[in-house]
Amino acid sequence: MAEMLINQTMSTTKRTHFQVPSLPAFRTMNYRRNYVKILNSLNGSVQIEEASRNLKVAYQGAPGAYSEFAAKTACPESVTIPCRAVINVISAIETGRADLAILAVESTMEGTAVRNYDLLLQRDLCIVQEINLFVQYCLLAMPGVTKSELKRVISHPMALAHCGRSLAELGLDHEAVDDTAGAVELLLSNRMLDTAAIASTRAAALYGLDVLAHGLQDESWNVTRFLILSKNNPKIAKKRKIRVKTSMVVAHHSGTLDVLLKVLSTFSSRKISLTKLEVNSSIDNNGPVKVLDAHEGGSVKEYPSVLYVDFEGSIDDQKVKDAIAELSKLPVYVRILGCYSADPTIYGLQ
């Protein structure tokens, strides 16, 4: 049994290990909530603080992208800032153009977005919230265009990959662009009557396009996990308690199996539930994994392997403090990426 668990954990960085909440937790996105969630830990809980309505959240993509919907779900009254690439999202928060940034890090179909995690490891940013979004891909076209008139489809590479079977059945060529909403913008600006885009129904409504097909994804249950990042820990307001999750990375130069077993035993002995345990090695990463060490002047160090660990509980819990202290005695570098609300809800776009 232990061998099976180890093999499943170490198999590939493309495997997702976060637990998807049950179907009854699914909720549609509601823009009418009049608060902004900014979350941090205090005495084993996470608190909600009301923030100004001009809070700025950077996301990757054009208006109408799934990342923007996720940002608006978490911060309904915020001002969203579109960015061409993920690195630009990070830059926006580091330079002060944005207060928060949102990144897609996992999906039930694709697994972990390793590059986004790597960027997080190299920056002095902390996770302050997570949001799970149900993603349904639709086929969008210019008004009046029918399926029979289409010759190709454009969208984000991940969206195209998620809809492989549907595209094969349609018999259409496909071409990758920067993001789903960017595909819609391209379609509209060039009045492409022989081309469709894969995006959301809300993107169709925003840009005035027709929806020719719903649910193009190969797997009907398609959930993406987003992390909201902050440059500084937000102020804490003493309000109602919420369940807490903590994310950390364990970087090391020693044998991965030994460190993995030690992490498992350290948390298991204290009955701390892990929600994610994943290996990212230099082989999978095409080079060493770079991790910012905030304790040594902000230097970036290279490691042959790191473990991504998510667990239930706060860094203020005594048993969590004891677990981290035990791991820190090993020849490893432990960095807390964030302590934030564990929201079980899966939000939809309808």
TrEMBL record:
InterPro entries cross-referenced by the UniProt entry: ACT-like_dom_sf, ACT_dom, Chor_mutase/pphenate_deHydtase, Preph_deHydtase, Preph_deHydtase_CS
Organism: Papaver somniferum (Opium poppy)
Occurrences of domain Prephenate dehydratase (ranges): 56-231
Recorded GO MF terms: arogenate dehydratase activity; prephenate dehydratase activity
Listed GO biological process terms: L-phenylalanine biosynthetic process
Residue stretches making up the ACT domain: 248-341
Annotated localization: Plastid, Chloroplast stroma
Pathway(s) it belongs to: Amino-acid biosynthesis; L-phenylalanine biosynthesis; phenylpyruvate from prephenate: step 1/1; Amino-acid biosynthesis; L-phenylalanine biosynthesis; L-phenylalanine from L-arogenate: step 1/1
UniProt signal peptide: none
Superkingdom to which the source organism belongs: Eukaryota
Protein name: Prephenate dehydratase
Keywords, in A-Z order: Amino-acid biosynthesis, Aromatic amino acid biosynthesis, Lyase, Phenylalanine biosynthesis
CDD domains in UniProt: ACT_CM-PDT, PBP2_Ct-PDT_like
Pfam families for this protein: PDT
A single Gene Ontology CC term: chloroplast stroma
Chief place of localization: plastid
